Amino acid sequence: MKIGIIGYKGHSLKLLNIIKKKFKSYEFFIYCRKKEISKNLNLANNNSKIIYTTSLEKLFICNAVIISSSSNSHVSYIKKFIGRGIYIFSEKPSCTHKCDYDYLKDIPKKDKGKIYFNFNLKKSKLYFDLGSILLNKSYGNIIHFNIDITHGLSFKKEFKNNWRFKSSNIFDNISGNLGIHYLNLLEGLIGNPKSTDVSLYTSKDKVNFDTALIISNHKNNITSKVFLTYASAYSKKISIYLTNAIVEYENNKLSVFYPRDTFNKKGLFKKPNSILSIKYNNDFAVSSLESSVEYFINIINKNKSFPLKDYNAGLASSINILNAKINKQ
Length: 329
Known about the structure:
Layout: E1 2-6, H1 11-22, E2 27-31, H2 35-44, E3 50-53, E4 64-67, H3 74-81, E5 87-91, H4 98-106, H5 109-112, E6 115-118, H6 125-134, E7 142-150, H7 163-166, H8 174-190, E8 195-201, E9 211-217, E10 223-229, E11 235-242, E12 246-250, E13 253-257, E14 274-279, H9 284-301, H10 308-322, E15 325-328
Parallel strand pairs: 1-2, 1-4, 2-3, 4-5, 5-6, 7-10, 8-15
Antiparallel strand pairs: 7-11, 8-9, 9-10, 11-12, 12-13, 13-14
C-alpha cells in the first residue's frame, strides 16, 4: 500500500505516525511545497519507506492520499486526485467557500464514494454512547445541548501571531477550525441546524479573536450552544437536557441523572442520582483520531466506497458555517 500525504508537520505528522504504527509495511510519499524543506527532510530521514517530494505528481501512484494542508486548499487538492481511482482522506473542513461546496455537491457519486472527510469525533466511543443514550425513550425528548471547550492557548508567547488568530477566514479561527468538530458532532446526534449564530470575541488582548459562542436552533424545538475559548483554564464539558433526565460528560466520565421527579426531604426538586456512569481511558478526541484513520484504511483494504450520507454530512458542516450569521464583538 502506498499512501501520499500533503503536509509534513503538525497534524500531518500525527497522521503519518498513526499509520506507521498500525500498518508497518506501507510506503509514504510526503509532499512539501518548498524544495529546501523536502531536501533537508530526505537528508535527515533514515526510513526507506518514506520519501519527501516537491512533485505532487509522484503521489498519483498512491492508493490513497491524505490532505492535511491549510483549510482553504483542501478542494484544490481534491481536484488534483479525483477521478484517478485514488482514495482521498481530506481533513475537515470539506470546503471553505460556497463555490467549492457547489463543486463537491455536484461531482459523480462514484467519486464521492472515494472521499472521506475526517470529522473524527464521530468515530469516538463517546459519540456512539451518546447516540445510544439519547435513543432511550425513558429519558424523554431532548431540549438543549451544551458544549464547553476551554483552555489557555492564547497566553502562550509562540501563539501571539498564530494563524488561528490572524486569518480572516472563518474556518481558520476558533469557531470554524475548532468549533466545526463539535458542530459536526451535534449534527450527527440531533440533525442539521435550521439557523446558527456565531459570535466572536477578543477576550485576552482586544485584538485577536480567541473566544466564540455558537448558538443553533434545530428541529423539534431543540437548541444547542457551543462555547469555545483559548483564554481560560482547561475544561471539556458536555451537558444534554432532556424532559426526564440530564446527561453530562466531564473528566472522561459520562453520566445519566434520572428521573426528573426527584425530591429532597422538604419535597423540593433536587438533582437526580446518577443511574449510569461510563468511564473512558483517555480524552475521546485522542482515541477517535486513531479510529478514524483505521476506518479509512479498512475501507481501502476492502475496496469499498464510503457511505454517501457521511460525505453529505461532511459537506453540511461546512455549509452550515458558511450560512451562519457571524457577529464580531
